[in-house]
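Lab manual, section 2.4: Encoding a predicted structure.

Procedure: take the sequence of the chain (167 residues), apply the prediction step described in section 2.3, and record the output as structure tokens. A sample record is shown.
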Amino acid sequence: MGQAMRRIFLGLAILAAAAGCSRRPAVHASALDCMTRAMYFESHRSSRDGLIAVGSVVMNRVASDDFPDTVCGVVAQRGQFTPGIMTNPMPSRALPDVQAAAAAVLRGERHPSVGRAMFFHAATYRAGYNNMHYTVTAGGNAFYERRRPELVTQPSPLPATEGLTRG
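Recorded output:
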């Protein structure tokens, strides 16, 4: 085969991969690693519901015009998640469960009560803002949407609920 043909085949292979026609797994390794890191460092000692809720917030941010449009871009965004989230080691026996939950979120699973929430904090923290509409508390975190104050109908964290996700 000549050089020109090789270039054509290489170009077609690149186009097919870019269009999603390759035989690679649907979950990209770097997105899986970034999602795992977000879940591990923000909710690794919690329930599966807590892990899926953190992943749901990451995906809500990916879909928003206000945040980066990739999982890694969201997770690595300065000041948004735990310092060192992209570089600290993850030495835990829970890591396989966290990775499984991360893969489930990347395949489309979402926590049913997170809704459009793009923020969360430790459930024990009490913020003094009037624009926080809470949607669920799971895995030790309270998840919320930012709304205009007059549209907030749930201004304080809800009691923790668990057992809502599939897994």
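Check your result against the sample. Helices lie at 3-18, 29-43, 48-63, 71-76, 95-106.
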